[in-house]
Amino acid sequence: MAYSEWGMNTPIEMEIDYWKGISISKWEDRVSRIIKLLDIKYAYPEECVVDIGPGPWGGIFNKINAKDMWFIEPLIGHYHARNIWIPPYNKHINLIMNLAEDVVIRDKFDVVIAVNSIDHGRSTPKALDNIYYMLKDKGIFKLHLHCRTKDQLNVAHHQAFDPEDVIEKCEELFSKVKLKASDIDPLGNAKYRTVYGECIK
Description:
Elements: H1 11-20, H2 24-37, E1 43-52, E2 65-72, H3 76-81, E3 93-96, E4 109-115, H4 124-134, E5 135-147, H5 163-173, E6 176-182, E7 193-200
Parallel strand pairs: 1-2, 1-4, 2-3, 4-5
Antiparallel strand pairs: 5-7, 6-7
């Protein structure tokens, strides 16, 4: 589908427009529901935790703390340029400005969190491979992922896949997979098929 059909010139413009249309309070409420749905702890006192694709408003670290906190977010520069980059107050967060599928990090993180983010890139299977390699042994991967059909694709989401594809890929990689598939998003903010839960390396 051509960008012009969506009134957007690039996927970046579509993403910026999405964030401008959501209030910070609404996003913080959604983060609280994500924490409950994925059974994310509020404190990881000894762990290194990364949030993939948090968006401009601090992602999961607005609500939780960890000894070592990281973002993987390729659009930070664009958020800065639009004056909508608002990281969590008084927290030091390390930044990686890249797509998850392009990050080359091995055995670093105790917890990887990816909420509706890895499907924005070129290859969700490659992103899952990289997440596996990013994790330390016995590390935990928390996932919430919309699985779009071909007629649900747009400028920022151009990969169509089934929930079963995601679960099968994770079962190839991880020692324990506790993922669920739903016909609609259990968070209640979208009608896409959704995979959510956790995997353990």
